[in-house]
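Customer escalation, tier 2.

The customer says the design service returned an amino acid string that "doesn't look like it belongs to this structure." They asked us to rerun it and document both sides in this ticket. The original structure tokens are below, unchanged.
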């Protein structure tokens, strides 16, 4: 009991130091932006990056931002169709390229941020959880090989335990819990396809400048098994998952405000990743994509190779933001002409730790124009709302 209370006290103190108070968070993120603008402070993405696995599943010092991102749709045992959509993300937000020599337990060069969401696709109930700490041995860290742990963090205040992401042979294990929001997710994932680079050699352009890019790979189709906790109910679940790992230092330029991103798993065995970056005042200014065939071979798409036209909108009752909702997606070279429709409208993640940080992250159904379902996936929409731009 004493150890448990000591841990809770450290987490409360660490949370305050890491930026649980909103003003501190903004100051830290502004500091990261100022440092990033300094001369040659951060490492840019490169087309000739020398990949090495499993090392590159872990964190990359010297790059300003990095994330490990999992989404999927889960079916409880005994059900015939997915009931839950989930998101789990660890972010590494660089404050300084190297650790400051302050001789303190609170020395930190990174923030560790976690976002998780669970949507009941039957009722439309969307639950969102978040954490934000400085990366220190007391609060959260990023692992290195041969340790299986890729990242861990103390859970949100009010919940015991940790959030974790670990390697499990060829796959990954993820775990999160938030007692205040009333949900938890524990999953083990195993790839159904080989790793796919998003862009030649994993060099993913985000703008006209060669430095506007990231190093980016995906496991576009993974089997997932585990449990979800909703309220007092614990359910055995299985389903499909998409995993992204991306790192870089300059993924949005000053003219860009956000992105629309699609990950689609088709029933014919193909997987599709598309992203469209929007400039001011919200008009598209750069886009790319990848089609991964059933054997795992990627084919890269230029801006003229595809289109995603919004068919409607949804207005958030929480933030007042209007998002596109439903898209006609066409990729003529792949013989694709489909409708991508949200499985629930209210899948917006709204931060309570960082002011004005919100985005739409939702489970979708892929169907033919005649209504026949042909796949499923996830869509992410950032930078919507007046004056909005993603914090990372």
């Amino acid at each position: 009991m004493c150890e448990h209370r000591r841990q809770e006290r450290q987490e409360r103190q660490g949370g305050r130091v890491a930026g649980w108070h909103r003003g501190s968070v903004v100051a830290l993120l502004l500091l990261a932006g100022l440092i990033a603008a300094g001369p040659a402070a951060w490492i840019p993405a490169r087309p000739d990056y020398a990949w090495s696995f499993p090392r590159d599943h872990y964190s990359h010092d010297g790059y300003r931002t990095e994330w490990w991102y999992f989404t999927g749709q889960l079916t409880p045992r005994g059900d015939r169709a997915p009931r839950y959509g989930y998101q789990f993300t660890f972010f590494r937000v660089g404050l300084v390229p190297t650790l400051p020599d302050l001789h303190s337990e609170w020395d930190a060069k990174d923030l560790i941020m976690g976002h998780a969401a669970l949507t009941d696709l039957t009722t439309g109930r969307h639950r969102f959880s978040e954490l934000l700490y400085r990366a220190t041995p007391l609060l959260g860290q990023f692992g290195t090989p041969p340790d299986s742990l890729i990242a861990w963090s103390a859970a949100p205040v009010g919940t015991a335990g940790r959030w974790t992401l670990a390697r499990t042979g060829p796959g990954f294990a993820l775990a999160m819990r938030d007692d205040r929001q009333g949900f938890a997710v524990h999953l083990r994932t195993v790839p159904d396809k080989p790793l796919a680079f998003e862009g030649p050699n994993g060099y993913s352009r985000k703008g006209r400048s060669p430095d506007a890019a990231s190093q980016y790979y995906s496991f576009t189709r993974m089997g997932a098994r585990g449990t979800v906790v909703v309220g007092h109910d614990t359910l055995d679940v299985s389903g499909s998952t998409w995993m992204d790992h991306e790192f870089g230092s300059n993924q949005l330029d000053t003219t860009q405000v956000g992105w629309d991103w699609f990950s689609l798993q088709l029933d014919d065995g193909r997987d599709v990743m598309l992203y469209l970056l929007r400039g001011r005042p919200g008009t598209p200014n750069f886009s790319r994509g990848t089609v991964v065939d059933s054997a795992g071979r990627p084919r890269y798409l230029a801006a003229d190779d595809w289109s995603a036209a919004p068919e409607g909108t949804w207005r958030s009752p929480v933030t007042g933001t209007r998002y596109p909702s439903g898209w006609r997606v066409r990729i003529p070279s792949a013989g694709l002409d489909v409708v991508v429709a949200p499985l629930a409208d209210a899948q917006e993640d709204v931060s309570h730790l960082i002011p004005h940080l919100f985005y739409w992250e939702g489970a979708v159904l892929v169907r033919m124009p005649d209504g026949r379902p042909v796949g499923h996936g996830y869509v992410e929409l950032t930078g919507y709302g007046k004056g909005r731009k993603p914090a990372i």
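Tier 2 assessment: The sequence is consistent with the input. The chain is about 10% helix and 50% strand. The chain has one domain: 2-381. Sent an explanation to the customer and offered a walkthrough call.
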